Predict the 3D structure of the following.
Amino acid sequence: MKLNRISAMFSEAKSKATNVSLFGATLTALLTMPAFAAEPAESVAAEADTSEIEVIAVKGIFGSLKAANLLKRTDDRIVDAIVAEDIGKLPDNNIAEALQRITGVSIGTDFGVGESVTIRGVSENLVLLNGRSTAGAGRGGIGLDDFPSSFLKTVEVIKSPTPEMIEGALGGTVNMQTIRPLELSEPLVAITLDGEYADKTENTAPNFSMGIGNNWDLGDAGTFGASANLAYLDRELRRDEFFSKVDLQDNIDIDGDGVVDDSGGPNGKYLRRTQNTVEQKTEERERTAYGVSLQWEPVSAEANIYLDLNATKLDGGQSAYSILDVGGSSVARSDSYYDANGELHNYDLDGVLVIPKTWSDFTTSDTTSHAIGGEWFITDNIELSAEYSLSKSEEKQTANEFNLRPIERTDPTDSLTTHTSTSSSYSGGGIPGYMYADSGMLTNPDNLVFREFFHKTLETDNEEQALRFDFKISDIGVNWVSAVKAGVRFTDRDYTANRFDLKPINGNTTLKDSYKKAVDDNGNFAPIWIDNALLADSMNIVNLNNSFDQTGVNGQNDLLTYNVYDADQLQNTEATYALVQQMLQDTSYAMNGTLADNMVEDNGAYKEINETTSAIYAQFHLDFDDLTAVFGGRYIQTELESSVVASVDADGNKVLDTGKNDYSDFLPSLNVTYTLTEETLMRFAAAKVMRRADFDELSPALSIDNSLVTGTQGSYQLEPYRVTQYDFSVEHYFGDGGIVSAALFYKDVNSFTQTDSSCLADASTVSGQNTTEWGNICLLDTAGQSQGDVNFATEDQGLAYVDQQKAAGQTGIVIDTDVNGGSGEVKGLELGYQQQFTFLPGFWSGFGVNANYTYADSEQPDGNPLLNISENTANGQIYWENEDLQFRLAYNWRDRYLYSQAEKRVQTVGALGYNVFNQNDPTADDFDATVGNNYREARGQFDFSASWDINEHFAVVGNVVNLTGEPIEYTTELGSVWKYSESDRRYTLGLRARF
C-alpha cells in the first residue's frame, strides 16, 4: 500500500535527501523551504514505487502543518509534531508556546512566557534532544523556554511510547530534533533579528539567531558536514500580583440590627480577606546559546559518525517589591454585603500594620548537552548504533531581601511602638480599592524603619552520563516481521545542592528583626528610619503608572504607592552589605569582615544524590499489510543513594549519612495501526510507564523559609510514579493536507505521591521565627517535641498568644513531606481538525483552520482532581497566506483547574467550612480533603502573527502575544478570588534573512 511505503521511507531511509524532502534545509526555522523529491528507501519487502511516494513542499504555514500531518500519519506511535517553520512562524517564539497548539497539550507560563507543558493533563513529562535526555534543575530536563526554538527542525510529542524510548514520561515525551549537516543539500546561512517590546516594562529586547551549515564531498575520504547555531536574547518582563489571605469566620451582624446575618457560606461561616498584598516583580533574562554539529560518512554511506555540542547560558534575575499589611479586626460598614460565595465585601480592618519588602533573586545557569555517536550498517539488513552523551546543569541562585517595619519615631527611642491604621476595602471591577485612614502609611519616613537584610545563595549541580547501544535487524526471514530492535542503556546521575546564609552575628545568627535586637552602647534601641542620611540614595517612592492595567483597579488603592529600598541596588549584594554594615556599626549587631567572611553553609539543607540505571529492551515490528504493530518491553533497574550531613568533623569536612533504595520496572508496550482505507487509520496503544521522583523529593534534607514558618522535606524511600495507559484513536486524512481525528485515552496511576504535613519542633524558632503572619504558625502541644497534628491559633487568640507560645518554645515549623499514596486515574477525549480551503476560488483559497479540543477527567486518592488538569481545553488557529504574505490568529482556552494544594494563603478554606487545616487525618471530625485547594480560573488568550516575504532572501515578521491582555485569577475551593496576576503583552517585529 502507498501508506506503508511512505512509512518505510521514513523509518528505513539512509539517504540524506529523505529528511530534506520533509523538513527542508533549515537551521533557524526560517521563511520558505524548498521542495525536494524524496528518494525512495529500500523497503523491507520490496523496492517502493517512487511514483506513489508523496512529495511534501514545506512552504508557509500550510506546508509546515501538512508536513507535521505526514509525520503523524507515518509514525508507528500516537504522535503529534510541529515542523520547524511552524515554530519559527509567529506567534510561537518559544517551544512551549508552539506546542500548546497540539491536541492534548497545555502549557505552564512564568511572566506570561511558556516554560513547560502538560500532556493529557499530566505535567510529569520528559524533554529529550535528538532522542537523548537533557539536564535541567529538576528531573524533567531542560526548560522549554531555555532552549532556542530556532535550533530545531521538528518537535515531536509522543503520547504512546515504544520500548526503545527512554523512560520517565507519564503524560508524553517531547523530543526536540536538530538538523544534521548531511541532511543539507546546499550551503545555508540564515539570520534572524527581532525586537520584542513588553508593555509593562516598556522595554524592547533584542532576539538574535544565526545558523550556518554545509557539507563537503571529500572523494574517497567520504562526506563531511558541519553546522553551527548561535542565539542571543536579552529580555525584561514584569508581573503584577494582588493577593490576600482568605479564611472563614463565624457569621456576623453586618447591617447593625443586632441580628447575625447568614452569609450562605458553609458551616455558619463567611469568607474574609486579610493580609492584602501587592507584589510587582521584574524579571531580566539574558540567554546565550550555541549548537555545533559535525558528521562524517564514508563513500559507501554504510556508516556515519556524529558529534553534537549544545550549550545554553542564562544570566538574569528577578527584583520585586512586596507590600503586605497584616492583622486588624473586621468591622462592617453600611455598604457591607455577602456575595453568593459567602464572602464579605466592603468592610474595614481596624489595627493593620504594613510590611514593605524589596526582593532580589539573581540566577546564573550553564546547561550543556553533548553527544558522540555513530551508526553502522553491517549489512543491508543489520544496523548497529551507539552513543555516549553528557548532560549537565549548573545553577547558582542569589537571593536578597531588604525589609522595613512600621515603627513610630521617638527621640530618644525608649520603646518601639508599632504604627497601625484602619484600612477600608471596596469591591467592584478588578482588584479591590484599598485605603488607609493614615494616607502616609506606606510613604511617611516617620513611621518606617529598617527591619532586616537577608542574603543566601543556592547552588545546584545536575549531571548525567549515558551510554547506549542499539541493534536492528530489518529481515529475519519471517514475512510479517519487518524489523527487530534491541538495545541497552546505562546512566549515572549525580545531583548536589547546598545553601549558604548570611549570619554575621556570632557566626550563627541572621539580621532578622535587627530593628528591635540591635541596641546602642547604653542598651537603648537603635532603629534606623528610612530618611537616615546613609539611605538617602537608596530609598524610592514607587508608583508604577501601568499597574494592573489588564485587571483594573476599583478606585484608589494605597498599596500601589510605597516607599522602599531600591531593587536595582539590592541586586548589588556587596554594596548593600556594606551599607547595612555602616548602618549597624555602632550597635550590638555590628558586622565585622566582608560578605564572604560571614556566609555560613547550611549543612541541614545539603543534598547529595547518586542514581544509576540499567535498561534493556526488545521490540518487534510486525507488518500484515493493512495492520502493523510494534510491541515489546523495557526492563530497568534503578539504584539510588541519597545523602545528608550527619555531622562535621574537626577539620570541617562533612560526615554524610546515606540512605539507599533500589527497585526495578518492566514496561511492556504495544502500538497497533490498522489501515481502514487509504485515508483512514485506526490506532490502539497500551503501555506501562514510570517516572522517578524529583531530586528534592528524594532527599530528607530540610528546606526552611527565612521566616522559620514553613518548609519541605523529602524521602529517599519514595517509589516512582507508575502508570498503566491505554489509547484508541481514529485519523481520517482528506484533500490536500486535511485531517479529522479523535482519540480516547485512559491512565491508571498506581503510585501517587501525596503531601503529609507535620509540625516540627526547632529551637531556633524561639529567637528567629517571624510571627507577623501568626495565622500560619503551627502550635506544639509540648515544647521541643515534633508532632503530626498541625494546629493554628484562632482569631480570638491572635498575635499576642502566638508570641507567648513562641517564647515558651511551643511554636513549630509546618513541614510538608511527600509520601507514596493511593491510586487515581486520568481519562479523556481528544478531537482535532485541520484543513486549508484550497478548493475555494482565488483569494479565499489562502484560508485555513487548525482546531482541537481535549476533555480530561481525573481523580486523586483523596477525591480531588489532579493538579494542572483542565476538564476542557480548546485551541484554534485561523490563517491566510499566499506566496508572499501570511497572517495567523490563534486562540487558546482552558477552563478552571486545581493549581496547588495546601496553599498557604487559603490553607483553612475548604468545602466543609471548618476553618481548620486538616487534610491528613480522615478519621478526624474536622477532616476536609479540599482545605487549602487553589484553583486557576478559566482563561483564554489570543495571539496574532504576520509575515511578508520581501524576496527569496528576506522577510519581515511581526507578532503579538496575549493580544487582548488577559489576566489570571486564582480562587479558593469555595469560589472566592484570592489572587490576581497579569504579565506583559509582548509585541515582536523582526527581519529574517536566508542565503
